[in-house]
Amino acid sequence: METKFKFTKDLTKEMEFITSRSSGPGGQNVNKVNSKVELRFSVFESEILTKKEKEIIFLKLYHHINNLGILSVTAQTERSQVQNKEIAIQKFYQWIEIALTPVKPRKKTRPTRASKEKRLEEKQALAQKKESRKKPEL
After folding, report:
1. Distances (CA, A) of 126 to 12, 116, 132, 134
2. What are φ and ψ of residue 131, in 5° steps?
3. Number of other CB atoms surrounding residue 71 within 10 Å
4. Which among 58, 21, 59, 19 is positioned nearest to 39, based on CA atoms?
5. Planar angle of CA 22, 94, 69, nearest 5 degrees
6. Is 126 helix (H, G, I), strand (E, B) or coil?
7. Whole-number Å distance between alpha carbons of 61 and 99
8. Could you report the per-residue pLDDT of 101-138, keeping only the tens digit for each?
9. Is the pTM of this model over 0.90?
10. What is the rounded radius of gyration, in angstroms, for the C-alpha atoms of the chain?
């Protein structure tokens, strides 16, 4: 399950994990075992991230960050706490990598002559089809 990301900084020292009982079906196990894992990471108090990275993460992941600046990731799909912890860490790094990947600027292009002609031909064919549906005038 170990997948490598392009994001190279190790943020595990600044992560905090909270466990609780998972919701949903699970039989007798669900009421006894704390399998839900919540990963908490304080974005603004991080000593590893640069100021620019913190700003980008806050802007792009704001809906996962509370008013104290804590990024929260939960995992409760598995029955094992260890597996849920791994899933939460993987999800966290995935979010960080997606947030810090720069958006490639769009290059403006003009439609080709062939694409313009094709569009006009399709438009003409559709108009012809609709015209043929009309009742004939007497």
Report:
1. 60, 15, 10, 13
2. -65, -40
3. 22
4. 19
5. 70
6. helix
7. 7
8. 888 999 999 999 999 999 999 999 999 999 999 988 87
9. no
10. 26
